Amino acid sequence: MEKYTTLYDVLIIGAGPSGSNAAISYKNLNPDLKVGLIDKSIFPRDKSCGDAIGPGVISALKRFNNQHILDNEPQVVSTTLYGPENIGIQNYIPEVKNKEDSVVYVIPRIDLDNRILNLAKDLDVDVFEGYSFVSFEKDLDNKLVVEIKNGDNITKLGAKILVGADGANSRVRKQLNVNTNSDWHKAIAIRAYIDSPNYLEIFKERTLMFEINVSAEKGYAWAFPSKGNLLNIGIGVPLNIFKKEKLDINVLLQDFITQLTNRGVVVENIRDEKSYLLPFASSRPKFRNDINVALIGDASSMINPMSGEGIFYGMEAGYLLAKNTYNLIDSPELTKGIADYEKAFSKRFRKHYLSCALARLLLQSPFMTKRLLKVASNDQNTIDFVVELLFDEAYLTFGEVMKIVYKFLLPSKVLMLLSKN
Ligand SMILES: Cc1cc2nc3c(=O)[nH]c(=O)nc-3n(C[C@H](O)[C@H](O)[C@H](O)COP(=O)(O)OP(=O)(O)OC[C@H]3O[C@@H](n4cnc5c(N)ncnc54)[C@H](O)[C@@H]3O)c2cc1C
Question: Residue 171 Cα, ligand 1 centroid: separation in angstroms?
Fold first, then answer.
């Protein structure tokens, strides 16, 4: 008897942006591949998120001419940062070096993820919605037998490569015996939607507002404008601090809403509060893989530890995995292709992640946050660099560190004088 009903070249667990973009990438690189995509939810489905996507996601969509899914969405033009004692700076999103578009969109994930999944469906990817991944085992001929279930209905599928794109609580990762990140390398965050008829008026433009070390010590809060009066708001803190100080995520959200109101923002119809974990890329999983299973996105701890951005990195991982393996599906070299994907991803993002992890440490100190915002408000290069860490792939070089240390040490008045000249 066959061990499975259908054999897939590529079987992906999780149809979020990482999994869907992996499917899109494989099908674009080789339309003959048989690709399956499995998700426990029925789409459209909500996901707790700030909903902000920047230049990286736009370039990932452009790679296969899919940027049309962003048509008619309003563009965000700036970022506003607040720190302790109400120090604030507003800055245009600077030209990012590695990407064509210096633009951000805020699109509710219930919509965005469905649009990306539909791109995969248009490419004849077999999508199983409402099916949960249960387990996998290796076959004698190196294929994987993957068990999925929908209620009591259990199905077994075959796969030449299995991709775990099943998010922060990945079961595929668990079955690989790879531990989840320690609390130190994770954050907990809550998102809510509100209506605000005057947000754009208060900030004079469509701006992403970040608040560091104010409503949550060692954490950050955000208010991101979407279409019309819709605003995505939220707050997050490192999980170790959350547990140590016995914080309540709903109370933190309430504190941030009070801060927003104090800034004059009208807050109406608070709804859809949802919290979730963010596995930071400051601790990436390392595992020796002798089977053809790969992890991408949150399942592989790819979230930027400074900004909380994860959609771009997960989508790019899906593409890099496809690029390194699509022509090795029937080759004994497939396992090496997966290792090459890991190397390519690390090579591209390691220094960037490290720099963002350092910035996160710096910004956990209220004193340093204040100092950084003071320096940045007098020095365009510093704020441009901070925004590039947030929205591009910037990293700290030795020279950059020395420049920042020097600026941190200079009295503000001297820095102001220098920046005027
Ligand atoms: C509060 C908050 C705010 C954030 N804000 C931003 C932001 O503004 N911008 C940004 O870029 N990132 C943000 N992130 C991070 C971002 O949400 C994630 O990095 C991103 O969703 C990762 O995509 P993914 O496809 O890897 O995983 P997910 O989007 O989590 O998708 C995983 C999919 O797997 C499915 N799944 C899970 N388990 C199983 C199973 N056993 N069987 C079958 N299917 C399964 C789930 O249903 C889900 O659809 C935020 C995260 C949080 C929590």
Answer: 14
pLDDT at 102 over 90: no
> Do 100 and 62 touch, CB atoms closer than 8 A?
yes
Tell me what the mean pLDDT of segment 94-120 comes to: 89
Task: Give domain limits for the chain.
Answer: 7-45+108-181+282-356, 183-279, 362-420
**Domain at 7-45+108-181+282-356, CATH from 3.50.50.60, 3.30.70.20, 3.40.710.10, 3.30.470.20:** 3.50.50.60
C-alpha 237: how far from its chain's center?
A: 16
Element (H, E) at 262: helix 249-262
**How do residues 169-224 score in pLDDT, each as one tens digit?**
999 999 999 999 999 999 999 999 999 999 999 999 999 999 998 888 888 999 99
Give the pTM.
Answer: 0.94
18 lines ligand 1 (CB under 6 A): yes
Ligand 1 mean position, distance from CA 164 (Å): 12
Atom of ligand 1 nearest to the CA of 14: 34
Pairing of strands 78-82, 207-212: parallel
